[in-house]
Design goal:
Blueprint lengths: L1 H23 L4 H19 L2 E12 L2 E6 L10 E7 L9 E4 L15 E6 L3 H19 L9 E12 L20 H16 L8
Antiparallel strand pairs: 1-2, 1-6, 2-5, 3-4, 3-6
């Protein structure tokens, strides 16, 4: 709640500053509109990368929520990350960055078709996501609609993917991967890519 209020206050202050400075002096306009034009172009380019998809939420426990985005088998690469917005009633305006912890489904050993993301409960948004998922799972079990496992169905908006690894590990005979905390998701993606290419595609040295 505090974070959302801070963001809203910052946006309103930003808009009010530009409006008042234009009233303050007539010479401000040439310095105001070009930055706004660049910002508008940035927003437009991001809109072209937005995708709205169906997704299912599964609570592993009170500390972890898995987000599986359906019909999203391409458009991203190993080691990349996306900004995710889940259409919950009171969390629509929030988006958060998640690293993709698996390789493409075509040669992944971890993930079936779709895009898999993992949200560890840490602050208010991830806690709200986990609580919502567990409540929906309990509701589906009570209503007898839990065939194939209980989950919560939602719609999400994806922005990206961005980043990725500039090093192709399949070129090397041996590789040492080190990660700590949430950085394990990035390492899992690279490891899954190399192992998947060897097992599923039959490529020597992951190439």
């Amino acid at each position: 709640m505090f974070l959302r209020r801070s963001i809203l206050r910052s946006v309103l202050t930003y808009v009010a500053f530009f409006a008042t400075i234009c009233y303050h002096t007539i010479y401000a306009s040439p310095w105001i509109f070009p930055p706004l034009a660049f910002y508008g172009a940035d927003v437009l380019s991001r809109l072209l990368r937005y995708r709205i998809k169906d997704a299912t939420l599964t609570a592993q426990d009170a500390q972890m929520t898995l987000i599986r985005v359906h019909n999203c088998d391409e458009g991203w690469l190993t080691g990349q990350h996306v900004r995710l917005r889940v259409f919950l009633s009171n969390r629509v305006l929030e988006s958060h960055t998640f690293a993709i912890p698996s390789a493409l489904p075509s040669h992944s050993c971890l993930s079936p078709p779709g895009l898999l993301l993992a949200a560890r409960t840490n602050r208010d948004w991830t806690w709200a996501l986990n609580i919502y998922t567990r409540k929906e799972e309990e509701r589906s079990q009570v209503n007898g609609k839990s065939e194939g496992g209980s989950f919560a169905s939602v719609q999400v908006m994806l922005d990206g993917a961005y980043g990725g690894s500039s090093i192709y590990l399949g070129r090397y005979s041996s590789t040492l991967l080190v990660a700590g905390g949430s950085g394990i998701t990035f390492i899992l993606s690279l490891l899954d890519d190399v192992v998947g290419r060897c097992i599923k595609l039959g490529h020597n040295q992951g190439g």
